[in-house]
From TrEMBL:
Membrane topology: Multi-pass membrane protein
GO CC, alphabetical: bacterial-type flagellum basal body; plasma membrane
Alphabetical keyword list: Bacterial flagellum, Cell membrane, Cell projection, Cilium, Flagellum, Membrane, Transmembrane, Transmembrane helix
Origin species: Bosea vaviloviae
Function summary: Role in flagellar biosynthesis.
Record-level GO BP terms: bacterial-type flagellum assembly; protein secretion
Ranges that cross the membrane: 20-41, 48-69
Subcellular location: Cell membrane; Bacterial flagellum basal body
Family according to the record: Belongs to the FliQ/MopD/SpaQ family.
Underlying gene: fliQ
Main location: membrane
Protein name: Flagellar biosynthetic protein FliQ
Keyword Disulfide bond: no
Iron-sulfur found in the keyword field: no
């Protein structure tokens, strides 16, 4: 396997990682910012208030995006398996 092929596999892996994890992380960020804004505006400084909405939002996002994430990971594994089988 040449260094160019290794870089292609690594680059593809990074893009698949970002496609699979990006939506969940974006939702967690948006929900965290919204809860922080509500806490700042209402001056409610309860530390556990951040976790429940964020956990629920991440869970719902995982349920919605799980088929897309599975397809992205399966496609990457298929491409890597073909490279291994062909010896590239």
């Amino acid at each position: 396997m040449t260094s160019g092929a290794i870089l292609d596999v690594a680059r593809d892996g990074i893009f698949v990682f970002l496609k699979a994890g990006g939506p969940v992380m974006a939702v967690a960020l948006i929900v965290g910012l919204a809860v922080s804004l509500v806490q700042a505006l209402t001056q409610i400084q309860e530390q556990t208030l951040v976790y429940v909405p964020k956990i629920l939002a991440v869970f719902v996002t995982l349920m919605v995006f799980l088929p897309f994430m599975g397809d992205a990971l399966a496609g990457y594994m298929g491409r890597v398996a073909v490279r291994i089988a062909t010896g590239e």
